[in-house]
């Protein structure tokens, strides 16, 4: 299993933060703000329960997958499996923040690609969620929370909103894919699934 995740976004096709930077800082009537999985547009939250097949395993949420990748470099899969099998995405997030566990040394370099990959798979593997995402058109998606200034907007609009940017990149990618391409991508991920 590759620990860096399969790259589905080439560097030339990646949507950079600069594409949206001029509009993220201003509030627009058409912005879609999301955070809690039980509120409108909760499907965009990484805590939203939508199992995905990635790296030969099933993950309850994208949060479980993302947090486990912090420890994917370790030969002993203890922390990885503890996160994958924990009961809630909140617990997965808490475990992923545990700094007594050895964080992979390349984490800062790979975290954006890993997030893009798991978010893309979440939407590709769940057509009902894809429909919700595509129906947002070209509206700006903002993870609105004071709890996170990197993945969210920091609550004041000054955060990087990287989850929102990731979702907009995924929306653009999926909109450009044919149904045959989507089916092939999903099949490539699900075919390698281990029965556990």
From TrEMBL:
CDD domains: NADAR. Gene3D superfamilies: YbiA-like. InterPro entries: NADAR, YbiA-like_sf. It holds the Pfam family NADAR. It comes from the Eukaryota. Residues 34-174 form the NADAR domain. Coiled coil: none annotated. This is NADAR domain-containing protein. It comes from Podila minutissima.
